[in-house]
Design a protein that fits this description.
This protein has two domains: 72 residues, Arc Repressor Mutant, subunit A; 162 residues, 2-Layer Sandwich (Beta-Lactamase), CATH 3.30.450.40. A hairpin with a 6-residue loop joins strand 7 and strand 8. Helix 7 crosses helix 9. The strands form two sheets. The chain has a six-stranded antiparallel β-sheet, sandwiched between helices. The radius of gyration is 20 Å and the shape is globular. It is built from ten helices and nine strands. The protein is α+β, with helices and mostly antiparallel strands.
């Protein structure tokens, strides 16, 4: 039993090391050790194993680590015929061309939202939306959509989580979510960062299950509150079309 526990813990530590690369493309040994809270000798052994298996590669010139080619091999098999990031790409491009702003697709992953697809605006000044970005659930239009249209028990568990920021009044936020559920969409204006705004609507599959949040984002001087209200029906309509494509 003790050996089994050690094996599981070793896997957890190795995964923690790999997860460092979600927020940076290159890491030194010391930086990784500090980030995961482990001794450098332990991290060095983990990295040596990951390097041997091809999951990380070490740059001899800088002595820093980056993701290895084995990660690409795994990701090549990630896409499925029912993957929203693939199925909905055409409709996302259509919406981008219609509104002229960046279009993103978000899903909830535990206490965060993750951007699983993005179609960049072709305007000179635009919102750049990197795929794979992980953002908090308590702020932003798509976060509010993922909460407002989630199953009640999921929503309440997140709202009552001790990690919920004390600066955000839960009761006021709960009321806002109810208004979003009634309106069918959410907006955010410089909530997460200055100069940025977004409109978001829920995507339900044909079984009525919330699959993702569709978001249109851009500079706040273009996506003013009035403009977002005018464009909200187009985003909601696109989300409904997308939902019809999903099983």
């Amino acid at each position: 039993m003790e050996d089994e526990k050690r094996t599981v813990r070793a896997v957890e530590r190795a995964l923690d090391v790999l997860l460092c690369f979600t927020s940076g493309s290159e890491w030194g040994l010391t930086d990784i050790a500090q980030r995961v809270g482990l001794h450098k000798s332990t991290v060095h052994r983990l990295l040596a194993t990951l390097e041997e298996k091809g999951f990380v590669a070490r740059d001899e010139a800088t002595d820093k680590y980056r993701l290895g080619l084995r990660i690409l091999e795994l990701s090549a098999h990630l896409t499925r015929s029912d993957d929203p990031a693939v199925v909905l790409l055409g409709e996302m491009e259509r919406l981008r061309d219609q509104l002229g702003e960046t279009v993103s697709l978000y899903v909830r992953d535990r206490k965060d939202r993750v951007r699983i697809q993005a179609v960049q605006s072709e305007q000179a000044i635009r919102r750049v939306a990197p795929v794979g970005a992980r953002l908090p659930l308590f702020v932003g239009a798509s976060s509010k959509v993922l909460l407002a249209f989630a199953e009640p028990e999921v929503r309440e568990a997140l709202l009552s989580d001790p990690a919920w920021p004390a600066s955000i009044d839960v009761e006021a936020y709960r009321k806002q979510l109810a208004e979003i559920a009634e309106a069918g969409y959410a907006t955010s204006y410089e909530e997460r960062e200055a100069g940025a705004a977004a409109i978001s609507a829920p995507i339900f599959n044909r079984s009525g299950k919330l699959v993702a949040a569709l978001s249109v984002s851009g500079p706040s001087n273009r996506l003013t509150p009035d403009v977002m209200r005018e464009r909200a029906p187009a985003v909601v309509s696109a989300a409904k079309r997308m939902g019809a494509l999903l099983g």
